[in-house]
Write a structure and sequence with these properties.
The chain is of the alpha/beta class. It is 33% helix and 23% strand. The chain has 13 helices and 14 strands. The protein has helices at 23-31, 52-65, 83-92, 112-122, 141-149, 154-157, 176-182, 194-204, 232-246, 261-269, 272-275, 286-291, 331-337; strands at residues 10-16, 39-46, 69-75, 98-101, 107-108, 126-135, 173-175, 208-220, 254-257, 278-283, 293-295, 306-311, 319-321, 347-349. The strands form 3 sheets. The chain has a 6-stranded mixed beta sheet with strand order 11-12-10-9-13-14. A 5-stranded mixed beta sheet has the order 3-2-1-4-7, with helices on both faces. A 3-stranded mixed beta sheet has the order 5-8-6. Helix 1 (23-31) runs parallel beside helix 2 (52-65) and helix 8 packs parallel to helix 9 (232-246). The longest helix has 15 residues, at 232-246. The radius of gyration is 22 Å and the shape is elongated.
Length: 351
């Protein structure tokens, strides 16, 4: 049974691998926190070959002089063991009852620990996130809007989209007791989306999602980020499995909104039992609608399944929507609103 943490220290969890370019600014942001309670920094150095270790040792003195205890672990193996392993090690060596996750290339605003701790006390079985400011500012503009503008309901209804967790990993804050109830992180190493897997397990166990609506993190975008090592197909496979586990068992039938490439890909990725629940595709493309049906040529069934293609206004909910949001100048969103559907009950986004 899950029991909330007692209110004691806060541990900032910082995995590090070859981060010398960003570490000074990152660690300065730890020093500048305005939280007045007990706080520690737990760093795990995952086989860095640059000057990261020396930078960490330098900042250990500065932070401890300011009353922030520092725990340093790590290894010098030829190869890193991955982000999941490093986070688990940093958590294991830490002592705080609350965990504040920080990536070594990001920068916290001074209010972050204080504001997220206050939210975590109010929501003990939740992952607490926050709004972010992206650097460079014009990188991933749609994604950044999505991170910052999801409604409280959408934090739970949009968990199937290609964007991943509805509160992003570098902003996570939660109690140690809740982390232990859900975790640990998958330690499969490079190419494993350990944050997405943890997030799905968190939701399976009834966890909530809460976002502090203040920009509390400078979230950097660069080509060396670990997230780029995760293949799109890996993410897709996990998303389809979670959709089939969490939503489709509750629907006797459903419509796939998008008769194009993404919609057909989703259909082909489903199990045979889920495919049989697909009563139609829907679209606005007159050519697709005029064709009348989609034939699943790779199916082993005889005759091969032919799924009708309808105009969206003629289709019946519930829908799995495979149309990317925020790309049509509002046309798709207006079409969806015209049907007066309830997100989460009548449709889910898989875009």
């Amino acid at each position: 049974k899950y029991l909330p943490s007692p209110a004691s220290g806060r541990s900032i969890i910082l995995p590090v691998h070859n981060a010398e370019q960003w570490l000074d600014e990152c660690l300065m942001s730890v020093l500048q926190q305005d939280f007045e309670g007990t706080m520690e920094l737990s760093v795990f150095n995952d086989a860095s070959k640059d000057k990261s270790r020396a930078i960490i040792e330098k900042w250990k003195v500065k932070l401890e002089d300011s009353g922030i205890s520092v725990v340093i672990g790590g290894h010098d193996s030829p190869s890193p063991r991955g982000v999941g392993y490093s986070k688990n090690q940093a958590i294991a060596q830490s002592t705080g009852s609350y965990l504040c996750f920080l990536d070594s290339d990001d920068v916290m605003m001074p209010q972050r620990v204080r504001m997220q701790y206050e939210a975590a006390v109010q929501h003990p079985a939740s992952i607490i996130g926050c709004q972010v400011r992206r650097d460079p500012p014009d990188s991933t503009e749609r994604y950044t809007r999505w991170i910052n503008q999801l409604t409280s309901d959408q934090l739970l209804t949009q968990v199937f989209t290609s964007h991943g967790p509805t509160v992003i990993m570098p902003t996570w804050f939660c109690s140690r007791a809740w982390f232990s109830h859900v975790g640990p992180f998958d330690e499969g190493g490079q190419g494993v989306p350990e944050d997405l897997l943890f997030f799905y397990e968190h939701l399976r166990k009834g966890g909530g999602v809460f976002r502090v609506d203040h920009s509390l993190l400078l979230y950097r975008y660069h080509l060396c980020a670990a997230t780029h090592s995760v293949l799109e197909m890996t993410i897709w496979t996990h998303r389809v499995h979670f959709l089939e586990e969490q939503i489709l068992p509750h629907w006797k039938s459903f419509t796939i909104w998008n008769a194009g490439k993404q919609g057909r890909k989703l259909y082909r990725s489903l199990t045979a039992a889920s495919q049989h629940k697909v009563v139609a595709f829907c679209d606005i493309d007159k050519n697709k609608i005029r064709k009348g049906f989609y034939c699943h040529e790779d199916s082993q069934e005889r005759p091969k399944p032919k799924v009708p293609i309808l105009h969206f206004q003629a289709a019946q909910p519930p829908f799995v929507i495979c149309v990317k949001l925020d790309l049509t100048g509002g046309e798709f969103e207006d079409n969806l609103k015209s049907l007066h559907l309830q997100e989460g009950r009548d449709f889910v986004h898989f875009s």
